[in-house]
Design a protein that fits this description.
This protein has ten helices and 15 strands. By secondary structure, the chain is α/β, with parallel strands linked by helices. Helix 10 links the parallel strand 14 and strand 15. The two termini are about 20 Å apart. Keywords: Oxidoreductase.
Length: about 375
């Protein structure tokens, strides 16, 4: 099979021929149909933290199960059935574990860290949900303590159900921001909470963000030098109760922090070193982290349709990129850059698909037919 492989010693990412992996106990083999790009894919290809001589890179994937591990032959779980359409993510090159990433024609994965993709959704669209959807859920529920529809143990908010909770999502049109807004609205509907949802985004995205399933109450242009003051004004001076910084880089952390009420909580998604901010400068300490048990609950939750038959999360708008595995580095990584979001390069390319990325998720087809 073909796979996109990082060789850190040679500072090289290229396609290589590798054996098709075999699923172990608790795992399934997946024929990958589509992969979605995340900033970490490009960052850790250039700045790897893993020690292996060679590492298959990539995070988000969707595909079809072609084989199951020795202990799953009699499993009744749809995510352990040959022919099932599933999606999930790996930590290819962005963790110190030795598991291969997702950018390959075939991959293995623990079945309980997958979700069942309904026939109504394309695998290309499904590939956009996995990592950012889970990360947003960890931020909204585990870190901010909003009531969670699939894990009662995460709810730590003591706000009265009749109180209005002011929630800010900075960079609302990013993949992470789009999922965070949906999850905030889901928490409000499920538990009857009153949420006043405020977001920052380019003004060109405001009409989109006011619509279902995001339904922002207030939107502010992040380019406005007074955006933080306008956010606070939207709370009648009370300040933000819960904040999600979808970028979590330097100045964004400080500016989001400046909008917070005294007893607020703030979720970030890059640590101080990677995000280049100093926690000692912050009165409200940002929260970040991850947990496998929460992940299994989240993916099981995604696998069940709502009472109306709809999926629990709407996928990101996608930008279908040409060329498959062979163009991920040349095109996709060129658009993402290998450093901070604020330092993304201008590719100066004329192709329509190489316009700056905003409000979309780049997706590459690996196998073209389902």
């Amino acid at each position: 099979m073909k796979a996109l492989v990082l060789t850190p010693a040679a500072n090289d990412v290229s396609i290589r021929e590798l054996p098709i992996p075999e699923p172990r106990d608790g795992e399934v083999l997946i024929r990958v149909h589509a992969v979605a790009l995340n900033p970490v894919d490009a960052i850790y290809a250039v700045h790897p933290i893993a020690e292996q001589e060679h590492r298959v890179i990539g995070t988000d994937f969707a595909g079809m199960i072609t084989a199951v591990g020795p202990d799953l032959g009699s499993s009744s779980d749809l995510r352990a059935k040959i022919g099932a359409r599933v999606a999930g993510f790996h930590q290819g090159a962005c963790s110190t574990n030795d598991r291969p990433g997702a950018f390959a024609e075939y991959i293995t994965a623990p079945y309980d860290l997958l979700w069942s993709v309904p026939d109504s959704m394309s695998l290309e669209a499904a590939s956009t949900i996995n990592m950012c959807g889970l990360t947003a859920a960890q931020g909204v529920f585990s870190r901010l303590g909003l009531p969670c529809p699939f894990d009662d143990q995460t709810a730590t908010s003591s706000d009265d159900a009749n109180d209005i909770t002011n929630v800010l999502i900075y960079s609302a049109s990013t993949s992470l921001g789009l999922y965070a807004a949906q999850l905030v609205r889901l928490a409000a509907r499920t538990y009857g909470r009153k949420i006043h949802l405020i977001g920052t985004a380019s003004s060109s995205k405001h009409d989109f963000l006011r619509q279902e399933p995001y339904n922002y109450d207030v939107l502010v242009d992040y380019r406005d030098p007074e955006w933080a003051e306008k956010v606070k004004a939207a709370t009648q001076g009370k300040g933000i109760d819960r904040a999600v910084d979808s970028i979590s880089e330097g100045e964004t952390v400080y500016k989001v922090h400046s909008t917070l009420a005294a007893d607020a909580k703030m979720a970030v998604f890059r640590g101080p070193k990677g995000g280049q901010y100093d926690v000692s400068d912050l009165r409200v300490k940002p929260i970040y982290g991850a947990a496998r048990v929460f992940a299994t609950k989240f993916f099981n939750f995604l696998s069940t349709a709502g009472a109306d038959g709809k999926v629990k999360l709407e996928p990101n708008p996608i930008r279908l990129m040409p060329g498959g595995l062979g163009r991920i580095v040349l095109d996709g990584f060129a658009l993402l850059g290998s450093s901070l979001v604020s330092q993304r390069p201008d590719t100066s390319r004329n192709e329509e698909y190489m316009r700056p990325i905003s409000g979309e998720k780049m997706v590459y087809k690996i196998f073209s037919s389902e």
